[in-house]
Amino acid sequence: MTRRLTALLAIAALTGVSACQQAEPEQPVAPVEAQPVPAPPVPGVGYACESGATVEARYADSATAQLAYKGRTYDLRSAQAASGARYVGSGVEWWTATRDGQETATLSRLSPNDQVGVAVLERCARPAGTPSPLAEAQPEPAVAPAPGGVLPASTPCKGPQLKLAAEDGDAGAGNRVRNFSLQNIGRQACSLTGYPGVTLLDAQGRALTSIRADQSPGSYFRQGQAPTPVELAPQARAYFETAWNVIPDETMQKTCPNVATIRVTAPGDTAAVSLPFAFQPCGGKIRVSPIRAEENPQAAT
Question: What's the rounded Cα separation, in Å, for the pair 171 and 118?
Fold first, then answer.
């Protein structure tokens, strides 16, 4: 009797365990999250510069650019320009334009307020047949008004339609000033607004990077004048001036660099016009005035 009872209890226990095991729900399998596919790296675009250096640009989108130059990386943002594509940031300005099957670019040092380029570091180019990323998607920027809200009536002047010439000058107390003219030799009217880009070259055609070109509001004749649009009919001229010191600072330099050529770009353009012009600026800088309509305007009273 005892053995039969023990066997019945064992069978009942096994049956209960089996029922409990069948009643337990199956655990859901955790879903496997899809891993995001990393974006491919943005290809670099190489520009060959006149100095022999190379600038590599990466355009991740229409609002930013990243430059690699002489072992450093510069992160830039898009900025307003009269023509072409302009980027500023990290103390430099990168301005590109496409013309006649070639994309040209200018790398400049920015002014202390990080708004305008004041000294050209490199002038570079590459064939336009290999478009840079997003080049076709970037709209042509609108023409920016000059301070005071004045818009030029004509399209901006470009290098090929301009002729550079030296005009009169003045001197006194170790200072020199020289007027230069930009003549519209094209068939269509154009306009100039702002400061020209000025680069000085030595007798071998090398850029004198030790001399910076500072923008100087107004001019020798009239101080504190904001840039205003200058309309140039065919054969008409606009003017700007450069000023410099001829007395060397013996604590910094005993002799001053010999300039053989002055090279100028119109505001917002990268195609330069050049003129043989010999002088010796001291102090590591020259001052450049805004472009104006008159060669020698009356001094403000």
Answer: 24
Q: How far apart are the first and last CA of the chain?
A: 134
Which DSSP category does 145 fall into? P
Angle at 64 between CA 63 and CA 69, to 5 degrees: 155
pLDDT for 68: 92
Q: Give me the pLDDT at residue 149, please.
A: 43
> Which among 259, 295, 297 is positioned nearest to 180, based on CA atoms?
295
Find out whether 276 and 261 touch, Cβ atoms under 8 Å. yes
Amino acid (1-letter code) at residue 69 = Y
From the centroid of its chain, how far is CA 66?
11
Q: Provide the pLDDT for residue 37.
A: 61
Q: Does the reported pTM lie above 0.70?
A: no
CATH topology classification for 159-288:
Immunoglobulin-like (2.60.40)
Low-confidence ranges of the chain (pLDDT < 70): 1-40, 82-83, 100-101, 113-115, 117-118, 128-154, 218-225, 250-253, 297-301
Asked if 140 contacts 86 with a C-beta cutoff of 8 angstroms, the reply is no
At residue 148, the pLDDT reads 42
212-215 and 282-288 strand pairing: parallel
Residue ranges covered by each domain of the chain: 45-127, 159-288
Cα distance between residue 106 and residue 86, in whole Å: 10
Secondary element (H or E) of residue 95: strand 92-99
CA nearest to 191, candidates 291, 57, 68: 291
User: What is the token pair recorded at 175?
Assistant: 């200072």
Strands 45-49, 117-127: parallel, antiparallel or unpaired by DSSP? antiparallel
Fold of 45-127: Lipocalin (2.40.128)
> What would the DSSP string read from start to end of 31-81?
PPPPPPPPPPPPPPEEEEETTS-EEEEEEEETTEEEEEETTEEEEEEEE--
Rounded Cα distance, 72 and 59, in Å: 17
